[in-house]
Design brief:
By secondary structure, the protein is α/β, with parallel strands linked by helices. Helix content is about 35%, strand content about 10%. The chain has eight helices and six strands. A six-stranded parallel sheet has the order 2-1-5-3-6-4, with helices on both faces. Helix 2 links the parallel strand 1 and strand 2. Helix 6 runs antiparallel to helix 7 and helix 7 runs antiparallel to helix 8.
Length: about 270
């Protein structure tokens, strides 16, 4: 990106919103998500009463993301990949297919201004790819001495689907892999699957931002994810009232994280 700016910009329609509309246009019948009777916001896909769009703000960041989304993933209201595009201005989203690979996606991977990193567990990497736990300036410097933009590749789907996407996509086998140590994952346990590495896409992206030397933005994405989860649960209305934390607590936590991020930018200018 060009020169950092601390001025917040109201986020427009982003890449995941556009991909969602495109994927719906391919469907022959409505997507049957749980809670399909709930009246949802067309953008965040949360219940209209718990829509978070008014709080959405772009972060100031030098990191870019690419979401490779498995078939119906973009249609799921529970998908957290869209949260990345909510906050990160330079986010790209593509549907993954095994045979008909998107030419625009391949062109982006080959764009010389970017340095792609596949964000993926080391134990599933089959080729001789470079494994890193931090993205340092040395990794972003071209042979001509020019600084590149880190492009973080997220395989967005279930872990079984993500593994398939990796194995069936040879173009992913040529780039460095950003992978996290077990102790890092153990301390970042907002939501786990059957294994320690199985965090949601937005949670992994928050870790990746910290690994790219932007921990303040990682915190902002983490708190945005918390607000998303709580708003989603409120839409389901399946918990006793006495167990609920007021949604304002999650909104305030996100706003505080935004403030910390903006103050960090002011100090670095």
């Amino acid at each position: 990106m060009s020169e950092l700016s601390i001025k917040s910009i109201k986020p427009p329609i982003h890449a995941v919103h556009r991909l969602h509309e495109y994927r719906k246009s391919l469907s022959t019948k409505p997507f049957g998500a749980r809670g399909k009777k709930l009246v949802r916001c067309n953008l965040c896909l949360l219940g209209e009463l718990f829509c978070t769009c008014e709080h959405r703000q772009y972060l100031t960041t030098n990191v870019s993301f690419m979401l490779m989304m498995y078939n119906d993933e973009v249609l799921k209201p529970t998908n957290s990949g869209r949260l990345i595009a909510d906050l990160i201005p330079d986010t790209h989203a593509f549907l993954w297919t095994r045979t008909d690979t998107d030419c625009a996606m391949l062109a982006l991977l080959d764009n010389p201004q970017y340095q792609p990193f596949l964000v993926f567990p080391q134990q599933y990497v089959q080729s001789e790819q470079i494994i890193v736990e931090q993205i340092t300036p040395a990794l972003l410097t071209s042979e001509q001495g020019q600084a590149k933009i880190p492009l973080l590749i997220m395989l967005d789907g279930s872990w079984r689907e993500a593994i398939k996407m990796y194995r069936k996509s040879p173009y992913l086998h040529q780039m460095p892999v950003l992978s996290f140590a077990p102790e890092t994952l153990a301390t970042y346990a907002l939501r786990k699957g059957s294994h320690d590495f199985q965090l949601g896409t937005a949670e992994v992206a928050a870790l990746a931002l910290s690994a790219a030397q932007e921990p303040q933005n990682g915190l902002a994405l983490s708190t945005w994810f918390d607000l998303f989860v709580e708003s989603s649960l409120l839409g389901r209305n399946r918990r006793a009232k006495e167990t609920l934390t007021p949604i304002a607590v999650y909104i305030d936590a996100f706003k505080l994280a935004l403030k910390v991020s903006h103050e960090h930018i002011k100090r670095s200018i």
